[in-house]
Amino acid sequence: MNKLILTSLGAIGVGGTGIGGYILLNPAESPKTKKSTPFKERYEKSLLNLDGDSTIWESKFSLLKKGNPNHPSLKGISTKEDNIAKSLHKQGCRDLYDSSSENSNYLEDFKNYCAKLIEDVVSGNWIEGEKTQTRTKWDAKLKDMKSKKDKLLSPSLQELTGKLTSSGETFSETERKLLEDWCNSRRKDLSQGEEGKLIEEIKNYCVNS
Fold first, then answer.
1. Is 42 helix (H, G, I), strand (E, B) or coil?
2. Which DSSP state fits 134?
3. How many angstroms separate the CA atoms of 184 and 206, rounded?
4. What was the pLDDT predicted at 78?
5. 206 close to 127: Cβ distance less than 8 angstroms
6. Which residues have a Cβ under 8 Å from the Cβ of 124 and sit 6 or more positions away?
7. pTM for this prediction
8. What are the residues whose beta carbons fall under 8 Å from the beta carbon of 189, sequence distance 6 or more?
9. pLDDT grade for 109, boundaries at 50, 70 and 90
10. At 160, which helix (H) or strand (E)?
């Protein structure tokens, strides 16, 4: 009887090991792959309102007609009639919002055709060019910015101000370009619910008064 018990226990032991080995090798029991974050969660405050934001939708649609999107749901839309294409545009963006935000190609589509950028929420005409002229609009902005260095909200703008060596009313072409480059980079950033004061700062130094 004791032999039978020992034999049974041995069999269970071997079986247990076998089962244990199976569990370790069974893909169903392996650690789950980390789920990627969709655009609608990572960039929640940059999403366009599907029932609003009509002016921005029109602007994005114009870009889409001339663009070359990567997301399958946005491809081929430009060949359709405008009324149909605009509806497909919104549906394509809705699909993109559900896509993985880890895809860099889709990120470009998101920014270009489906998202709210800083330039979309800052009203007015952005200053462009004029770097080589005398007493340009950039000069007035740089002078004001330099006088308010300690009150600026943006760290990168504070750093830029520290590079200004000119004094008086006129600044160099290099200094004007520093501010122009900063404005151009900010206007293409995603709008993520920045505080009103930060938006006002961008407007103060990048947009015609």
1. helix
2. S
3. 8
4. 83
5. yes
6. 203, 207, 208
7. 0.72
8. 117, 118
9. very high
10. helix 155-161
Counted residue by residue, the chain has a size of 209
Domain ranges across the chain: 39-116, 137-206
State how far the Cα of 62 lies from the Cα of 51, in Å rounded to an integer: 18
In which band, very low, low, confident or very high, does the pLDDT at 129 lie, cut at 50, 70 and 90?
A: confident
Buried/exposed 33-49: b ≥16 CB within 10 Å, e otherwise: eeeeebbeeebeebbbe
Helix (H) or strand (E) holding 41: helix 39-42
Token duo for residue 19: 């089962």
Dihedral over Cα of 54, 56, 57, 58: its sign: positive
Closest CA to 156 of 145, 165, 171: 145
Q: Give the closest residue to 63 by CA, choosing from 101, 103, 117, 22.
A: 117
CA-wise closest residue to 95 among 114, 117, 119, 77: 114
Report the distance separating Cα 179 and Cα 145, nearest Å: 10
Residue type, 61: F
